[in-house]
Amino acid sequence: MILDHLLARAASRLAAAGSPSPRLDAEVLLCHALGVDRTWLYTWGDRQAPSIERARFEALVAARAQGRPIAYLTGEREFWGLALATSPHTLIPRPDTECLVEAALARAAAPEGRLLDLGTGTGAIALAFASERPGWSVLGVDIRPEAVGLAVHNATRLGIANAAFRESDWFAALTDDECFDLIVSNPPYIAADDPHLAQGDVRFEPHSALVAADGGLFDLRHLVREAGRHLLPGGWLMLEHGFEQAEAVRGVFEAAGYVEVASRVDLGGHARVSLGRRVDDETGAERP
After folding, report:
1. Does the annotation flag 159 for ligand binding?
2. 162 is in an annotated binding site
3. Cα dihedral 105, 183, 286, 250 sign
4. Which run of H or of E encompasses 71?
5. 216 is in an annotated binding site
6. Which residues pair with 211 in a beta bridge?
């Protein structure tokens, strides 16, 4: 069977299985099976599919038809122009999270500084920021050792030397004197009864990285409450959250004494990131 016909048949199967992008999924999986890029595929689509690669491709299509995420099947996802290795132990990096990177870069005008990424997963946020600010020192932490190992792997293969990673339950493994100009996080923020948990890629992603108590706000509140101990004077805390949580999260920031509290929208126009600058609770001055 020639490649174009194989693609068309796979796309039809994925469409019937409910894939939102069946043709793209089929192309990505065939490129992965053949070890080529999509330009090669468009150029040589009239070639015969080698039997071994065809069998591998059909196994990948079968897994995708059952709902397995493309990023887990190929072991890779692009984020901020970086090709990141992925794993079922971590969330799949998503374009909406680039809003958080943009917000951090906008407040990192100094040539040097320190950024902390909490719950780093693949290292996507930390590595995207570090790639744009080589003079900054970036630390990513995650409670899962598999995630830390994956983030280290991504930093090494991308040649990003100013990012380090550590196993930690949020701030637990940080010393009292470790403080940062910026703290960012994409924490769990989905409520346990959210129907989206039964849809799409999230069905296969780690539950602990998605779901939080108190209607999804538990970890967001915890980070706002604890971050002040590790922020430098005038430092910023920036948190990704659900598109309906912005008002509640801004209220948490304000109740904790943060100033210049605001939200930023993602690619879809939804308020996706909220942020605030830490000052002394009583005087309103920047922390000493």
Report:
1. no
2. no
3. positive
4. helix 70-74
5. no
6. 190
Task: Give pTM, 2 decimals.
Answer: 0.92
Distance CA 175, CA 108 (A): 23
- Check whether 72 is labelled as a binding-site residue: no
Judge whether 189 is annotated as a binding position: yes
Q: What is the pLDDT along the chain (288 residues), one digit of tens a residue?
A: 899 999 999 999 999 999 999 999 999 999 999 999 999 999 999 999 999 999 999 999 999 999 999 999 999 999 999 999 999 999 999 999 999 999 999 999 999 999 999 999 999 999 999 999 999 999 999 999 999 999 999 999 999 999 999 999 999 999 999 999 999 999 999 999 999 899 989 999 999 999 999 999 999 999 999 999 999 989 999 999 999 999 999 999 999 999 999 999 998 999 999 999 998 644 444 443
Q: Name the strand (E) or helix (H) holding 136.
A: strand 136-142
User: In whole angstroms, how large is the CA radius of gyration of the chain?
Assistant: 21
- Residue 269 is labelled as binding a ligand: no
- Domains by residue range for the chain, with CATH: 3-67 (1.10.8.10), 77-277 (3.40.50.150)
Cα separation, 143 vs 169, whole angstroms: 5
Q: Is residue 188 part of an annotated ligand binding site?
A: yes
Strand stretches in 34-128, DSSP E: 76-79, 82-85, 113-118
- Ligand-binding site membership of 284 (annotated): no
